[in-house]
Amino acid sequence: MGKKDQFDKPLAQNKRASHDYFIEDTYEAGMVLTGTEIKSLRTGRANLNDAFATIRNGEIFLHNMHISPFEQGNRNNPSDPTRARKLLLHKVQIHKLLGLSKQEGYTLVPLKVYIRNGYAKVLMGIGKGKKQYDKRESAAKRDVQRDLQRILREKQKVSFPT
């Protein structure tokens, strides 16, 4: 049996991150969850839209990530679904991220949440914000690529009659 791909089934994705930022580097971090949050994550009831990360006192926190309360939960259910969650990284990685995020225009963006070896992980990216003209340029490249793929498919249909 081959090794499973670690990103084969993301539980939550931030699709706007690639639209709004140039992602330059990624880091995998563990998440500190309380109560039945892991059960909600496993059922796919998480949302990374508008989520961001900050570094305070040598610790990194994930803000505005929404994890819906688990319906069959008990009193250990957290009351605030968008509370700040602590992320687990090595101290060297946190210091490196702190230095990079202090540079002008850079921010820490969560990209994906997934389960790896039974633990909830978040893929963090260090991104530089795109300007409006960069977004238009990316959209134009995507449209050209889509048109090329369509033309190639049509040529393959024509060259191989059935």
Write the layout of secondary structure elements.
Blueprint: E1 12-13, H1 17-20, E2 21-31, H2 37-42, E3 46-47, E4 52-56, E5 59-63, E6 66-67, E7 85-88, H3 91-102, E8 106-116, E9 119-129, H4 132-159
Antiparallel strand pairs: 1-8, 2-7, 2-9, 3-6, 4-5, 5-7, 8-9
Keywords: Cytoplasm, RNA-binding
Protein name: SsrA-binding protein
GO biological process, one term: trans-translation-dependent protein tagging
Counting helices, strands and paired strands, the structural category is alpha+beta
CATH fold category name of the largest domain: Small Protein B, Chain: A
Count of helices? 4
> What is the strand content?
25-35%
Q: Sketch the topology as an H/E string, one letter per element.
A: EHEHEEEEEHEEH
Q: What is the level 1 CATH name of the largest domain?
A: Mainly Beta
Number of domains: 2
Q: Looking across the biggest beta sheet, what order are the strands in? A: 1-8-9-2-7-5-4
- Examine the secondary-structure arrangement and name the CATH architecture of the largest domain: Beta Barrel
Helix fraction by DSSP (H/I, runs of at least 4)? 25-40%
Q: How is this structure best summarized?
A:
The chain contains 4 helices and 9 strands; from the N terminus they run E-H-E-H-E-E-E-E-E-H-E-E-H. It has 2 domains: 12-130, Small Protein B, Chain: A (Beta Barrel); 131-162.
